[in-house]
């Protein structure tokens, strides 16, 4: 799975087992970390229930990454259950490699950058110290369902988690057993969360039901909801199957005014604006259409939107907001430099392929047992009535065999 992000002036991209960092302003040497060449965890006999020690197995594919608010720290986790912490300024340095209990789905740094939260597929959130980079993680909180996203409020007071069971939970960070609120209203799994920098008490959420919702998360109050299916002309593969296109990514610009939304499997990106004074706080602005499938999106420090595309010819595009419209920058030195380096790294990666549906296995299958029961009941009633009708018909007497006619003889004279 290929993703992108920004760590200050560093452009970040994950592709298969690699983390690639390219500086967009200075001709600095790119940083490349390959998880397949990283340290392997040796299982002890205790870990494998008394069997011989063995290495942890996995595909080494990067599953998630996060950037600290200052842009100085980066963390990634992979399919082999590594949790790797990097320092990117003043130079790139691998600080530590630790191990998580289960494969992770989302990471988040605290604003103070002293804690790294890790959400996993079992529904648990573990806390890893940044100050003590060799310390093992501690269980922080848990859900009864798979977690898909985790984030921390701008004041470090709340942990916000989203799961497969349509719930968004707002918990107090210092006492996670104390739940502040729930943000309820999605009808499918909640796939992504975003807190706009200019609106620290608002929360944007995206879901498998094809909607983007705006919340006041401390109270759990819903402010607005957008059904993206109403903005889409063409049916995607999910829609053809009866599912809405799941929201894959929501990102906001550094100023918090612009919001970009990417749906899984669609060729468009939806652009919104956030306005505190307007009754319609989340306002739809425009739709960007692409010839190649967008795989991920992200804003840089200047508020430009970078789009990672499923194309070896044009893997990246940059869009800038000018005169109330988003325009594609074809002549851009930053873009040219990053693209050249990415092509070099991707040429050595066998698994640079887009995933057309990241969430197909998360949709719940509904069973209408009542309809099946009523249908079978009606069938039994009809069969019973048919049997009764046959039993009530009068029995026909069997036709007796016809005896031969008697031969009349004439009396003799």
UniProtKB/TrEMBL annotation:
Pathway field: tRNA modification; N(7)-methylguanine-tRNA biosynthesis
Pfam families associated with the record: WD40
Keywords: Nucleus, Repeat, tRNA processing, WD repeat
Record localization: Nucleus
Protein name (Swiss-Prot/TrEMBL): Uncharacterized protein
Role according to the record: Required for the formation of N(7)-methylguanine at position 46 (m7G46) in tRNA. In the complex, it is required to stabilize and induce conformational changes of the catalytic subunit.
Basic residues bias locations: 387-401
Family affiliation: Belongs to the WD repeat TRM82 family.
InterPro entries recorded: Trm82, WD40/YVTN_repeat-like_dom_sf, WD40_repeat_CS, WD40_repeat_dom_sf, WD40_rpt
GO biological process: tRNA (guanine-N7)-methylation
Region (Disordered): 383-413
Ranges of the WD repeats in the UniProt entry: 183-225
GO cellular component term, pick one: tRNA methyltransferase complex
Compositionally biased tracts (Basic and acidic residues): 402-413
């Amino acid at each position: 799975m290929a993703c992108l992000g920004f760590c200050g002036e560093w452009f970040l991209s994950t592709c298969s087992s690699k983390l690639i960092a390219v500086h967009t302003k200075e001709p600095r040497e790119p940083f490349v970390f390959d998880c397949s060449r990283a340290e392997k965890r040796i299982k002890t006999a205790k870990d494998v229930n008394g069997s011989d020690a063995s290495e942890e197995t996995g595909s080494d594919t990067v599953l998630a990454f996060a950037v600290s608010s200052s842009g100085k720290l980066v963390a990634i986790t992979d399919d082999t259950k590594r949790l790797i912490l990097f320092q990117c300024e003043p130079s790139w340095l691998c600080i530590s490699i630790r191990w998580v209990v289960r494969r992770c789905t989302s990471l988040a740094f605290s604003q103070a950058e002293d804690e790294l939260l890790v959400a996993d597929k079992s529904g648990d959130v573990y806390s890893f110290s940044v100050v003590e980079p060799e310390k093992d993680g501690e269980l922080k909180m848990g859900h009864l369902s798979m977690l898909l996203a985790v984030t921390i409020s701008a004041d470090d007071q709340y942990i916000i988690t989203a799961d497969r069971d349509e719930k968004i939970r707002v918990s107090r960070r210092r006492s996670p057993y104390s739940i502040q609120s729930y943000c309820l209203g999605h009808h499918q799994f909640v796939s992504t969360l975003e807190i706009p920098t200019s609106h620290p008490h608002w929360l944007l959420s995206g879901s498998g039901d094809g909607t983007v919702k705006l919340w006041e998360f401390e109270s759990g109050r819903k402010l607005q909801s957008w059904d993206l299916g109403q903005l889409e002309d063409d049916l995607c593969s999910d829609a053809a199957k009866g599912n809405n296109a799941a929201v894959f990514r929501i990102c906001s610009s550094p100023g918090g005014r612009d919001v970009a939304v990417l749906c899984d499997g669609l060729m468009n990106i939806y652009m919104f604006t956030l306005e505190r004074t307007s009754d319609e706080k989340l306002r739809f602005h425009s739709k960007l259409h692409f010839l190649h499938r967008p795989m991920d999106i992200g804003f840089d420090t200047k508020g430009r939107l970078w789009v990672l595309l499923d194309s070896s010819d044009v893997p990246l595009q940059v869009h800038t907001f000018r005169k109330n419209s988003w325009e594609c920058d074809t002549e851009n030195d930053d873009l040219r430099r990053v693209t050249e380096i990415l092509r070099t790294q991707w040429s050595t990666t066998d698994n640079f392929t887009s995933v057309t549906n990241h969430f197909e296995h998360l949709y719940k299958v509904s069973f209408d047992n009542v309809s099946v029961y009523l249908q079978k009941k009606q069938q039994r009633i009809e069969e019973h009535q048919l049997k009764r009708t046959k039993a009530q018909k009068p029995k026909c007497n069997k036709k007796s065999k016809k005896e031969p006619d008697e031969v009349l003889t004439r009396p003799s004279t």
